[in-house]
Amino acid sequence: MKRPSRYKALYGGRGSGKSHFFAEAMVANASQSKGFRAVCVREVQKSLKESAKRLCEDTVYAMGVKGFEVLNDSIRTPGGGVIIFAGMQDHTADSIKSLEGFHVAWVEEAQTLSARSLEMLRPTIRAPGSEIWCSWNPRSADDPVDKFFRGLEPPENAIIRKINYDQNLMFPEELELERQHDEKSNRARYSHVWEGAYEPQAVGSIWDRLTLHSTRRDVAPTLARIVVAIDPAGSSLPGADEHGIVVVGRGEEDSHGYVLDDSSLHGTPKQWADRAIACYDRFEADCIVGEKNYGGEMVEQTIKSIRPEIPFIPVTATRGKHIRAEPIAALWSLGRVHMVGTFPKLEDQLCGFTSSGYEGSGSPDRADACIWGLTQLFPAMVQTKTRTVHIPNLGAGGWMN
Ligand SMILES: Nc1ncnc2c1ncn2[C@@H]1O[C@H](COP(=O)(O)OP(=O)(O)OP(=O)(O)O)[C@@H](O)[C@H]1O
Ligand SMILES: [Mg+2]
Fold it and tell me: 286 and 332 share a domain?
């Protein structure tokens, strides 16, 4: 990994030392070659806090190298060089040209890098001997970085390594405890999180990760209607399922669905009702939607005992969960519903729905709330007409004889 190479790719699970490795390599290069210029990029960087700046700073101090100066938004390196931090989404085809003289571009969390960003970055980093480094925890074989390095034709002149926590000599005790906990209680995601396997996907699932990722938005447009949907668990005892509380909206212009928040929680009826009402206020929602079946009038009464004037729409499940889910998943695959941001637990639950039922662990309360909310926003799409099916009376001499 230390010898020069056009591409260096390090992928694997949590705590394997990927980020530390590249941060150290970057600081070492900057300290050895005067005027070294590097950029740490991510697909989205809303603030410097999200960048690798802090890690690079700590690495400069830990390595005790001289001639570095930490500024607000960058790090000056010996001999007039610099390390800067950038989000690809803030760049256009023109503005990215400012990176042409850079010697290294390090893409952190590269699983979120879009195809456009990868295409833009590759020809931009063009100084003699320049290198592109990528570190990521694999999500899907369809992610651009995965296709590029692990697909059928990986680039020549690339060093590509898989690495996991068990190869990190500095793996800290705190993370070891986290790992052991996940190994026992989160089997479904363990291989992905800690062993660098792709995100789990149920066989025959009706949502797929790629659709969720490719339709994701950073911000919602102006919304015509916003609802808070709630799917309370049957019990508030410790260890019981969560109460799903999800906020969704419908775009004023495009009529698309937007998932705005997942505020699900464990707790008492008072706690979930307070949380739902707080969401109603924060998003200036039009109403709260809740299932009537098992709780009877309980959901409505609990909400109204706190705030009587809140518009509440009771919904009744006449069909199985996964059947209610199908039309909503179909809207998603048409690109008409979007996650605004990332909601890992909700997304896991959605991806656990298959055409024959829910195959994830526990009860999919977040997904249920999300589906109720979107069903409320797209009533025409999911309505079922009552049909009378006439079964001919075959009588004697029918097919059974
Ligand atoms: N060179 C190092 N010096 C000190 N600690 C290190 C070093 N390398 C790794 N570690 C320890 O290992 C932990 C995991 O390393 P790092 O954050 O680089 O892993 P990662 O593969 O980027 O994980 P993630 O996927 O969680 O981002 C660090 O929090 C740190 O405690
Ligand atoms: Mg990391």
Answer: yes
- Split into its structural domains, the chain has a count of 2
- Domain assignment of residue 147, yes or no: yes
pTM across the whole model: 0.64
User: What are φ and ψ of residue 150, in 5° steps?
Assistant: -115, 5
What ligand 1 atom has the least distance to the C-alpha of 109? 27
Higher pLDDT, 345 or 64: 64
In a domain, 259, yes or no: yes
pLDDT at 89 > cutoff 60:
yes
Give pLDDT tens digits for 218-266: 899 999 999 999 998 876 666 677 899 999 999 999 999 999 999 999 9
* Domain span at 28: 7-182
How far, in Å, from the CA of 106 to the mean position of ligand 1? 16
Beta strands in 153-263 (DSSP E): 158-162, 223-231, 244-251, 257-262
* CB distance 21 to 8 below 8 Å: no
pLDDT in tens, 165-193: 999 999 999 999 999 999 998 777 789 99
Ligand nearest to the CA of 11: 1
Which residue from 20, 40, 111, 176 has its CB within 8 A of the most atoms of ligand 1, so it is best to mutate? Answer: 20
- The ligand minimizing its distance to the Cα of 169 is 1
Residue 106 DSSP SS3: strand
Question: CB under 6 Å to ligand 1: residues?
Answer: 14-20, 24, 137, 168, 170-172
Residue 293: pLDDT band (50, 70, 90) is low
**Closest ligand (CA of 10):** 1
State how far Cα 227 lies from the chain centre: 22
Residue 127 included in any domain: yes
Atom of ligand 1 at shortest range from CA of 24? 1
Handedness of CA 271, 274, 276, 279 (dihedral sign): negative
